[in-house]
Amino acid sequence: MGNYDAVIIGFGKGGKTLAQELAAAGKRVALIERSEKMFGGTCINVGCIPSKSLVHSAALSRDMGGSFEEKTHRYELAIAEKNKLTAKLRQKNYKKLNDLPNVEIYVGVGSLRDAHTVIVERAGTTDELKTDLIFLNTGASPFIPPIPGLKESKYAYLSETLLDLERLPKRLVIIGGGYIGMEFASMYQNFGSQVTVIQDGPVFLPREDEEIAAAVLQSLRDRGVRVLLSAKTTKVTDMDNHAVLNVTAQDEEVTIQAEAILVATGRRPNVAGLNLEAAGVELTERGAVKTDIHLRTTAPNIWAMGDVTGGLQFTYISLDDYRIVTSAVLGDGSRTTKNRGAVPYSVFLDPPFSRVGLSEKEAGDKGYEIKIMRLPAMAIPKAQVLQKPTGMLKAVIDQRTGQILGAHLFCEESYEMINLIKLAMDAEVPYTVLGNAIYTHPTMSEAFNDLFRG
Ligand SMILES: Cc1cc2nc3c(=O)[nH]c(=O)nc-3n(C[C@H](O)[C@H](O)[C@H](O)COP(=O)(O)OP(=O)(O)OC[C@H]3O[C@@H](n4cnc5c(N)ncnc54)[C@H](O)[C@@H]3O)c2cc1C
Ligand SMILES: NC(=O)c1ccc[n+]([C@@H]2O[C@H](COP(=O)([O-])OP(=O)(O)OC[C@H]3O[C@@H](n4cnc5c(N)ncnc54)[C@H](O)[C@@H]3O)[C@@H](O)[C@H]2O)c1
Questions:
Q1: Single GO molecular-function term (predicted)?
Q2: Which alpha helices (DSSP H) does 127-245 contain, by range?
Q3: Residues of the domain holding 218
Q4: Is residue 337 part of a domain?
Q5: pLDDT of 415-430, one tens digit each?
Q6: Closest ligand 1 atom, CA of 39?
Q7: Are residues 305 and 365 in the same domain?
Q8: 4 C-alpha vs ligand 1 centroid, how far in Å?
Q9: What DSSP character marks residue 377?
Q10: Is 441 a catalytic residue?
Q11: Could you identify the atom of ligand 2 that is nearest to the CA of residue 314?
Q12: What is the C-alpha separation between 74 and 60, in angstroms, rounded?
């Protein structure tokens, strides 16, 4: 039995950062992680970092061209490179925490006995930890739809297992056209696979600005990605060297063959087995840990961070959740989910798509009198230098105040540009400031001179 000031379940972004902060404040901390392969969490092991390493390698491979065998060889090298990177980061993350004298890492599955007792279980041993404060940072796991034959298929993968597939699939089918589906479609198309995306709804990227979603869809189709909308997979059958998917797409029956199937139909909070009810921690209707604006759960000494709270699933949100929780337990509680500012995001396509704030429709529905500003990517000199003229930029402006309500950038390097707009929105700087600023040249950011000319 151990006594701690704080116990953190899950070695994710929020958890590991909070462990360091609490340790620096003199607290005795236990950090529990169920798998030695997950020190540092989803992002560095099976999420953002490995997928972006492969996105980068795929773009290089596409530029080199060649036969499918040559592409396969480059793919194998890319997987090996990615494995090297994740192993390095995992070890670094472990060491950083393990070197702290008042942090103890437990490898095992954590659960609650009551609001002040955490159990850690692993083969044959059980530890019981007594503590004042508990932090839940257990992340999320893929949801697998109940499609006959899918779970049993040896050709079916989740994002984390596909990232380890060493042989480039000639044909890849992706079930789900969300963030993971789009990024993997773009990446595997660049590596040289023939990619088909099966999306259940009639609208492609329904949460995105209509005009931008149409431009992204067109670009993927121009690159050879087959995207089926209003499509339902009814059965998966394994053959000797491939799977056959029966799909109903807009009332037509089609069969699709694939060497690999990626299931990318959303990720659900990891709450199973935590025994939360024993401590009075309630769930939302959607099965996430219920929290208030300080990320406190319904148990007064228990807090939650990251994907398990059912919020936006991004690494930097888990990191910001750590700031909010730190503010609550070590500070004055002034940082909350309500004042964290605008939340940007990027989908790493080719070119990438990035967004912050409201779409044109959302701004209209909220009653704003709006002005729309647009710029085709081909008008940006740097896009021409990079030979990446595809895409468009769109901004939604509050006509009355000149504030930027939203920006939607589908162009090369948009993942860097969007952070500047987020800053302008948080600082309540009118669009004209970005429109009249001096930028270095030739850069993608200087496009703001034209986008926001007004
Ligand atoms: C393929 C992919 C690509 C992504 N790309 C991006 C991206 O480009 N940018 C971005 O911002 N986000 C991206 N995300 C999302 C991002 O990875 C997650 O939002 C983020 O990692 C969540 O962090 P977290 O702190 O909530 O938990 P996690 O990092 O998921 O950590 C939770 C940890 O808890 C452990 N755990 C769970 N239950 C228990 C238990 N009972 N006991 C002990 N340990 C337990 C898990 O093993 C895990 O290590 C991507 C996700 C995926 C899958
Ligand atoms: N660049 C990034 O920041 C990045 C990259 C990848 C993932 N992520 C995070 O990971 C999370 C999970 O990604 P995801 O793509 O799994 O989820 P998602 O919620 O983004 O998309 C899931 C998609 O699958 C579709 N779908 C569900 N069931 C289906 C079915 N039976 N047949 C066909 N389509 C079906 C849904 O309509 C939806 O479009 C995202 O919410 C995101 O926050 C972020």
A1: NAD(P)H dehydrogenase (quinone) activity
A2: 159-162, 179-191, 210-222
A3: 156-265
A4: no
A5: 999 999 999 999 999 9
A6: 49
A7: no
A8: 25
A9: G
A10: yes
A11: 43
A12: 9
